[in-house]
Fold this sequence. Notes:
Layout: H1 2-9, H2 12-16, H3 19-27, E1 45-49, E2 52-55, H4 56-71, H5 79-84, H6 87-107, H7 114-122, H8 136-146, H9 150-167, H10 178-189, E3 191-200, H11 212-221, E4 227-228, E5 231-240, H12 245-248, H13 252-261, H14 263-266, E6 269-279, H15 282-293, H16 298-304, E7 310-316, H17 317-323, H18 326-334, E8 340-346, E9 349-361, H19 366-398, H20 403-409, E10 415-416, H21 441-446, E11 454-459, E12 463-473, E13 476-477, H22 480-512, H23 517-522, E14 532-537, H24 538-543, H25 551-556, E15 564-568, E16 574-584, H26 594-622, E17 624-626, H27 628-639
Antiparallel strand pairs: 1-2, 1-17, 3-14, 3-16, 4-13, 5-10, 5-12, 6-7, 6-9, 8-9, 11-12, 15-16
Helix pairs in contact: 1-26, 4-6, 4-27, 6-9, 6-26, 7-9, 8-19, 10-26, 11-22, 13-19, 15-16, 17-18
Amino acid sequence: MISFFRRALSSWVVLALLGLIMVAFIVTGVSGPSSLSGSTDGGVTVAKVGDRTISSIELSRRMQNQFDSVRRSQPTLEPKAFVAGGGFDQVTDALISARAVDAWGPHQGFSISKRLVDAEIAAIPAFRGVTGQFDEAAMRSILAQQRINERDLRNDIASDLLRGQILSPVIAAVPVPVSIARPYANILLERRIGQVGIIPLQAVTDKVQPSEADIARQYKSFIAAYTRPETRVLRYATFGTAQIAAKAKPSDADVTAYYQQHIAEYTAKQTRDLTQVIVPTQAAAQAIAAKAGSGTALAAAATQAGVEATSLPKQAQADYAKSANDAIASAAFAAAKGKVVGPIKGAFGWYVIRVDAIGGSPARSIDQARPEITAALTKEKADAALSDLAASIETAISDGASFAEVAQKNGLTVVTTPPVLQNGQADLPNWKVPAELQPLLRPAFDATPDDRPTVETIVKGQQYALLNVAQVIPPTPLPLAKVREAVVRDIVITRTRARAEALAKAITVKINKGMPIAAAMASAGVPLPPVQPASARQLDLARADPRQVPPPVRAMFTMKPGQARTMPADNGAAFFIVLLDKVEPGDIATVPGLVESTRGELATAVSNELAEQFVHAIQKDVGIKRDAAAIGQVKRQFAGVR
């Protein structure tokens, strides 16, 4: 029941509609370079979708985007755990589904106009300049930093808008009748009551010391467990704002030119808060103006006359003139605070206006505005200079320059690491991973010594690094003498776990034959912890953090009353014997609103199920061919499995 809701709410169809959000993350600097739909980025083809292909590079980048997004809420998440939890497969399905919709839509008459794409780009906050308006120079600077070209950005946004246009009506909520939701709500309130027996490994520890033959066999059979993983010696040279500081300083001429180009921002501005009433006849307007002039609030006078007043805060005269006319605006801005103006004839009738407040900002000279202008120009010039420096370094690399030549030509300081693991750790005393090295580890371990140097981002817009793999040290088995203690420990743990599991299964058989759980536990012949009571409702599980719900409690919701089951602890330190005694029905009246909330969850689940079936039909129509081997290779690389 709960898993049904959760599966529906994490539908890959919903993920496929989130592409635009991912683009927004990219261009605001929360994530790294994006995987864009129109990108011809090479790589091995992992899937063919109609007449389109998905490359291994595109899949890798999209995977990294989604992983980074999840990691913002789970900072300790590792790629291996992300893959084990199904994240890789879900994102792969989402990408293939998205491309299927992209391929299908145009053949059905769906299209996205250039104007609509322009509007989406203009709405991206990162592309706004110091005035708060869309700034093409700011956009090009950010795209250059992220190594995204404008064509690919436009293609990606158009694809996202197309998918939204096609799928949004499909995933609209489907009403679910109360008669269907009520039984599900009742299930959520069922209470499962049982007992749990625990067999800790330490209670049945195998104390027989392994023989030399046992040790040798364990070492040989599980040599991978006693092997030092691949390490790499990396070379990198950072560059950033320090290298372009001189170029980023604006001249007096730059400040003057900027001031003159934006002179409207620095001239004096007067704004007024106005209350306005428009009526069709002069007589009605005169009556309202008379009441307002004698002390009645203009809004109240309008209400008494059967019309409604409009509040217009912070009006500039030119802007107000556009909605009224020049004569009305001139009169309103000539009146003192608190005065009532009108009636005055306008295009929509007779206007009566009250001046509620007068505000604005005084004019600022170039000297007064200089600090603000200097800061804006410094950032703009720094972004451009840093982008130019990164581009020149990448051009030099493309032209065949070596790591050493590029570093020397640009005056960069080269750092060479000791052999490091994928997490940056090294087998050296007192070694600490430098802060700037952490963002470089993934690209460094995705590269080979034969690859050309690359430019990688450390802090977007502030610091970058020229990166090169100097040496790869393959996985190396550690000598038995060095890991002997670990081998012995592993043998003892394996034997002990087998003994604990066998004992747990024997006890479970006795319980299922009718022996009380306490008596069955007592028959084990070793001291064990007392049997613990357990009870919960599905509603409690739905509201709790899944990581804090004990596995035996979860298991009770998959069992029948009177049934016992053996299961290992998540950490492998014990075995549980779970017995479900009974199921108590709940009372829906004790949880007001549960039926309605269940209806909502079911409606979302049904909508997403319909959307999934719709996309499956689209996939069948356009034709999908997956290369399982190529996808598997990307999966292994992402998880760090060689």
